[in-house]
Amino acid sequence: MKRQQIVLVSAAIVALALLFFFGKTIPPKKTETSQTPSPAAAPAKVEFADILSKAKQKINPAQNERLTALENSVIRGDVKDQEIKVYHQLAHFWKDSAHLFEPYAYYTAEASKLENSEKTLTFAAQLFVDNLLTEADPVMQNWLASNAKDLLDKALQINPNNDSTKIGLGACFILGNIGGNPMEGILPVRAIAEKNPGNLYAQLVLGLGGKKSGQYDKAIERFNIIIQKQPKNIDVIFQLAECYDLKGDKTNAIKWYSEAKKMISNEQIQKDIDNRINELK
User: Fold this and answer.
1) pLDDT, tens only, 147-174
2) Are 192 and 163 in contact (CB under 8 A)?
3) Can you give the pLDDT at residue 205?
4) I want to staple 169 with a disulfide (CB 3.0 to 4.6 A). Which of 105, 152, 229, 249 is the partner?
5) Residue 183's pLDDT is what?
6) What is the reported pLDDT for 7?
C-alpha cells in the first residue's frame, strides 16, 4: 500500500458512521497537492439531479416504487409541515434503506431549510462538512461545500456568534473549492484559533487547509496542537504521518506511521503500514 492509500485509512476511521450507513468501502484516489497556496481553479459542477439519477440506479424495483410514491408526495404537498415530513421520509429512505449518503444529506438539508432553526440547519450542514473533510474528488468537494455554505449562511443569520458555524463555513472555502480566495475562509478560522487555541475544530480545519495547499510545516504545527490535547486521535496521527511523508521527512513519517500502527488491530492494515515504513527506510 502506498502513502496515499495508507492515509485514507484515517479518513475511514473518522467516517466509520458513514461507512456503516452508506457503504463507502472504497475511498477515492487522493489528488496531489500544490506546494504553494493559490486560488483553486473552479471545478466542474455537479447537479443533484445527476447524483439522484445515479443513486436510483443502485436501488431495486421495490425501493424505486417506494421512492416514487414519496417524491410524488412532495409534489402534491402544499403545506410546509407536510413537505418537511416527506423530506425527512426521503432522507431516512436513502439512509436506512438505500445506504447512500448524498441523497440523505440533500433531503435532510431541504427539510432543515423549511424548519429554519439554528439546530436543524447546523446539523444538516455538518453532514456535508464532515464528508468534505475526507472527500478527494474536487467536483464533489465543491458540491458538498456549496450545500454546507448555503445552510451555514442561514444559521449565521440566526446566530452570528456561533464559532463552530464560522469554522464550518471556513472549511467550505478552504477545502471545498468555492470562491476565488481561500483566505476568505482561512482568516475567520484563524481568528477563532488565535482567540481560543484550544478550539481543536479550528486547528483541524487549518491543519487540513495547510496540508491541501502544500504548507506542511504549518499543517504539522496545527496537528501537533491537537495531539497535545488528544494523543490518541488516530486521524490526526495519520495526518501527521502523511504531512511528514509529503515533505520528505522520513524519520518523522516513520515515527507517526508506527504510532498509528499501534492503534490499529486490522492485520492487513498493519501489514500495509509496515510496507510503507519499509519503503521509507
Assistant:
1) 999 999 999 999 999 999 999 999 999 9
2) yes
3) 95
4) 152
5) 82
6) 47
Asked whether the beta carbons of 67 and 59 are under 8 A apart, the reply is yes
Long-range contacts formed by 243-252: CB under 8 A, 24+ apart:
243/211, 243/216, 243/219, 244/216, 244/220, 245/3, 245/280, 246/3, 246/33, 246/211, 246/214, 246/216, 247/216, 247/217, 250/280, 250/281
As a whole number of angstroms, the distance between CA 132 and CA 154 comes to 19
Alpha helices in the chain (DSSP H): 3-14, 16-22, 48-56, 61-76, 80-92, 101-115, 118-132, 138-158, 163-175, 183-195, 200-212, 216-229, 234-247, 250-262, 267-280
Whole-angstrom distance, CA of residue 272 vs CA of residue 69: 47
What letter represents residue 36's amino acid? T
One-character DSSP codes across 4-46: HHHHHHHHHHHTHHHHHHH---SPPPPPPPPSS--PPPPPPP-
Which residue type does 154 have?
K
Q: What is the pLDDT of residue 179?
A: 76
For residues 105 and 95, is the Cβ–Cβ distance under 8 A? no
Judge whether 7 and 136 are in contact, CB under 8 Å.
Answer: no
Residue 225 identity: I
Return d(Cα 179, Cα 58) in angstroms, integer. Answer: 33
Q: Mark residue 122 as left, alpha or beta (left: phi above 0; alpha: psi -120 to 50; beta: remaining).
A: alpha
Listed as ranges, residues in the chain with pLDDT below 50 are: 1, 3-40
d(Cα 70, Cα 56) in Å, to the nearest integer? 13
